[in-house]
Amino acid sequence: MKNSKRYISPSLFGLIVICFFLPFVTVSCQGRQIATLSGIDLALGKAIEGQRMNPNTFALLAFITAVIGIFAGFLKNIKNNIVSSIIGAAGFVCVLLIKSDISSIKIESQYIKLLKIEYRIGLILVVILFICVVIYNLISFYLNRNEIKDE
């Protein structure tokens, strides 16, 4: 049972990576949907109605932290929980900063004030999963630390 628990953290990070392929934001103007962007679209940039959108640095960093977290979860010492918690916290902060940096979605339009950006299920799941990663790894570290003291 204890051996199977070591796959929980990498699995959570893997789910985060998968969620980056789900819709993160929907851009609409006067009720007409212009684009739906996944986390990968935000991280790498995408053309919207002929205009190239710049990559969102924080989305790219959050994706990279999730990928690194998959591998960090397989470290074989007690520090893997701390490392995974730090990586998860960094990813969480990057995801929160996506909203503040959403200005990178610039569509040249005379109706720029009419644009509406809605946050979608992919972004919500990524936030929740990063929180789960941090909490799980901190609890695991605490429990493992107490087991080591008892021995």
Q: What does this entry show, briefly?
A:
The chain is α+β, with helices and mostly antiparallel strands and 151 residues long.
Indicate the overall shape. Answer: elongated
Give me the CATH fold name: Butyryl-CoA Dehydrogenase, subunit A, domain 3
Give helix % range.
55-70%
Give the number of domains. Answer: 1
Largest sheet: 3 strands, antiparallel
Number of helices: 6
What Rg is obtained from the alpha carbons, in whole angstroms?
18 Å
- Indicate the low-confidence ranges by residue numbers: none
Distance between the termini: 19 Å
**What would you say the CATH architecture is?**
Up-down Bundle
Order of helices and strands: HHEEHEEHHEH
CATH class designation:
Mainly Alpha
Annotation, overall tally of beta strands: 5
Order of strands in the sheet with most strands: 2-1-5
User: What structural class is derived from the secondary structure elements?
Assistant: alpha+beta
Proportion of residues in extended strands: 15-25%
